[in-house]
Amino acid sequence: MPAQPSVSPPVGEGDQQTPVVRGPALGDVLEGSADSEWGEGPPREPGARRSGGPEVTGRVSLSIRIKRYNPEVRPDAWWDEFVIDAEPSDRLLDALHYVKWYRDGSLSLRRSCAHGICGSDAMVINGRNQLACKILVKQVAPQVTVEPIRGLPVLKDLIVDMEPFFAGYRRVLPYLVNEEGTSDRERLQSPEERERYDDTTKCILCAACTTSCPIFWADDEYIGPAAIVNAHRFVFDSRDQAADERLAVLSEKSGVFRCRTTFNCTEACPRGIKVTKAIQEVKRAIMFDRY
Length: 291
Prior knowledge:
This protein is of the alpha+beta class. The protein folds into two domains: 60-160, Beta-grasp domain (Ubiquitin-like (UB roll), Roll); 163-178 and 190-288, Fumarate Reductase Iron-sulfur Protein, Chain B, domain 2 (Orthogonal Bundle), CATH 1.10.1060. It is 26% helix and 14% strand. It contains ten helices and nine strands. It has helices spanning 34-37, 92-103, 137-140, 163-171, 191-195, 214-218, 225-235, 243-250, 264-268, 275-288, and strands at 6-7, 21-22, 60-68, 78-86, 122-125, 128-131, 143-147, 154-156, 159-160. It has a five-stranded mixed sheet. α7 packs across α10. It is elongated.
């Protein structure tokens, strides 16, 4: 039921009995709002009739072609297409929100901060791994193709199973290891020591680099670029004492030497990390004990 304003009773004898109108509580559905008319329905078959949305006053027509998958509907993937109007300065993530909220509530995707920090909305956009929140409509109009990132099992539509990715990440001990005990002050570093691994601290674990790697696509045991980047961040940290353990993991068959230096990972990174350079530095650390 749509939320209705409530009127408070008189507060006391002699008080002016002016009704106090309270607004709806958080989570109430307002009458006439989009939420009161458009809800998420059951998964629909490809080609089924779509409901419309509220009138849009955008200035750009955008055709969004989305690779869909829902094992409850059919065993194989299919392509779906939606044409919407959007502002040129809208993000592609906003356009996908519009499709989900007003055209097809069964569309599934991940997103969180929507500002390029959380890494949740990595997708294959026009053939390249990118974050949907960092791509503007004017960069892709009049047509854009969106797919789930490759190399990981697809659960539904644009959502993939990230567990294989995080399994590799956990193998490299992605945290500071120092057995010197607690101290009453910080573990100091010089600016030069901090600069040694500064670039690889920027990783947001979006998996864009790992899922752009052809070795990762073909070898599900390969630890992947993101895990190597996060190992680099601690291997070259002067405060850490577990470099040997990490390099032992990365020297295995599934480790850093599976990399064939295609630079896909560096091109895909939305944070501008020099991923290939970090991988090569880890290789040299293993071969020449330079860490």
